Amino acid sequence: xxxxxxxxxxxxxxxxxxxxxxAYKIIQIINQKFPIVLNTxxxxxxxxxxxxxNNALPKDTIEGCKKSHAILFxxxxxxxxxxxxxxxxxxxxxxxxxxxxxxxxLNIRPSKLESELFYLSPLRQDISKKGFDIMCIxxxxxxxxxGKSEYDKSKEYAFDTENYFKNEIIRVAKKxxxxxxxxxxxxVSIDKANVLKTSILWRKTVDEISxxxxxxxxxxxxIDNATMQLIRNPSKFDVILCSNLxxxxxxxxxxxxxxxxxxxxxxxxxxxxxxxxxxxxxxxPEIAGKNIANPIAQILSLSxxxxxxxxxxxxxxxxxxxxxEALLKNFKTKDISRNGENYISTEDMGNIICKFLLKRI
Length: 361
Ligand code: NAD
Description:
Order of helices and strands: EHEHHEHEHEEEHEHEHEHEEHHH
Structural class: alpha/beta
Distance between the termini: 19 Å
Bound molecules: nicotinamide-adenine-dinucleotide
Shape: globular
Strand content: 15-25%
Radius of gyration: 20 Å
CATH superfamily of the largest domain: Isopropylmalate Dehydrogenase
Number of domains: 2
Largest sheet: 10 strands, mixed
Oligomer: single chain
CATH topology of the largest domain: Isopropylmalate Dehydrogenase
Strand order of the largest sheet: 2-1-3-12-11-4-5-10-8-9
């Protein structure tokens, strides 16, 4: 008997539906060839849901997510909905709500540069040619984005508050150490412990957790230094552990130096391994519908879902290596082609990755 998993699929806006279509092709292969079934059910989210129901996250969508083992998310947003008040806009009303609703405190963003694709990176060639493989772990439901804040326009005065409870740090740090065990066994924890009280607690707590993981080499780095070291020598990093604010900044820097937002997936997971998986980039409205978007971020998001929420490392590894083979054999979408020439379409990239996956089974 095949084991069944319910997956809520939320394609969203812009390029979301067309790159999701390529992930569906992979799901079809998995359902046919592997001993698991991914039961997909599609729901509206983002701008398209606003147009239909005047709500970026309709009740049906939330209920559908609740009934699922994981959420595969596309992307949301676009100019059409930018006039709305902030809390009604697609991103805030859907993504931020889902993160909080399902307590998705652990955000994982891999950032990889194969040395063969060095030319994509804005870094100097002698640095980018070394390639890198970084896993940025960001605490996602605490810190300054959720602290007390105020903007008093009459006094022209505003404040935001960074605050953390120890248990919020413990749970994300533990996950980071467990992840590091499956990689090069080293973590750099980011803080500003020379100035901020929350960072002092952060560093002390991470040190305490590290006692349970003697095989992992832990070091600490101030956020300002980390932003420099990532440009200077990204290949020396493996797992980076950050608070919500510092992780927001560093994960974008990691994406930028890899040079290809269209290839970067991201996972947001809770204590029970329920997660939301989505491309790191947005809805790229200016290229939507042109069959030129890169589907790799969406396909790798599916691979992360299978790895972390379903726990099937073998299938996830097969998807990852099929993507790698497509890149190494020089199949490129427009965003990663040299000088924007000799590129293949979104559909073709999806088909080629499927072909390499089938070859591996
Ligand atoms: P974006 O990530 O959509 O686009 C930035 C650049 O990257 C553009 O040049 C775009 O063409 C390119 N790009 C992104 N994904 C690509 C892909 N798969 N293939 C090829 N090229 C790709 O960011 P933006 O332009 O700042 O935002 C556009 C919309 O997306 C806005 O409405 C924003 O609010 C929304 N957004 C949504 C999310 C999300 O759903 N998680 C994240 C960021 C932005």
